[in-house]
Amino acid sequence: MHRALRTPSVPPLRGGPPPPTLGKASLGEEAALDDVNNVLDIYVFYIYVFNMHKGPHSRRRRGPRVRSRSDDGSWLIKPPLTPLIEPALLIALRDGMTHGYDLADQITESLGIKRVDHGNLYRGLRKLEEEGIVSSQWDDDASGRSKRTYELTGDGHGLLDAWAETLQFTKERLTALLDSYEGKP
């Protein structure tokens, strides 16, 4: 006795193939259950594949917008500063051991931003420490609570030099772009 099993109460896919069905489940309850689980796995895969990207005209935003219009209709440009946090952090650590709050202050000052998320800063420092770019130690001599201080390693200085070259190259490209805008040769 062959009976077709369908996936239980699964909504139909939009724009994709119909949900997969199973044609043979006469091997007993356990085999039928395995077959249903396999069908569900396939169906989840179909949902993933067909919703993975919605095409170039999708209404779904993929992150913060760099440009928008103000109330008066003029353009507002907000360049992303997130990629510059790492070199700003390395520059702040260049002169020696520093603790997290001082690093946050130096980064906000050097990038001209209002504040740095301290949670993200400390997660970034831990990641850099795992990569051997930064080392840390507890400073018990400071007044008040013990503070963790950070400093660049040899690899960290090398990474800072690489960032400096990259930023210099980017500066040259931006200068050339602005010169082109201003009509300079």
Q: Which labels suit this protein?
A:
alpha+beta; 2 domains; 3-stranded antiparallel beta sheet; two-stranded antiparallel sheet; extended
Task: Walk me through what this model shows.
With 185 residues, the protein is of the alpha+beta class. It has 2 domains: 5-51, no CATH class; 79-181, Orthogonal Bundle (Arc Repressor Mutant, subunit A). Helix content is 46%, strand content 13%. The protein is built from 5 helices and 7 strands; from the N terminus they run E-E-H-E-E-H-E-H-H-E-E-H. The chain has helices spanning 29-51, 85-93, 100-111, 118-130, 154-181; strands at 5-6, 21-22, 67-69, 75-77, 98-99, 134-139, 147-152. A hairpin with a 5-residue loop joins strand 3 and strand 4. The protein is extended, with a radius of gyration of 27 Å. The model is unreliable at 5-10 (pLDDT under 50).
Could you write a compact summary of the structure shown?
The protein is α+β, with helices and mostly antiparallel strands.
Give the proportion of residues in helices: 40-55%
> What is the mean pLDDT?
76
The number of domains is 2
What is the molecular shape? extended
Low-confidence stretches: 5-10
**CATH topology annotation of the largest domain:** Arc Repressor Mutant, subunit A
Succession of helices and strands: EEHEEHEHHEEH
CATH class descriptor name of the largest domain: Mainly Alpha
- Biggest sheet features: 3 strands, antiparallel
**Helix segment tally:** 5
Q: N- to C-terminal separation?
A: 83 Å
The CATH homologous superfamily of the largest domain is termed Winged helix-like DNA-binding domain superfamily/Winged helix DNA-binding domain
Q: Which strands sit side by side, in order, in the main sheet?
A: 5-7-6
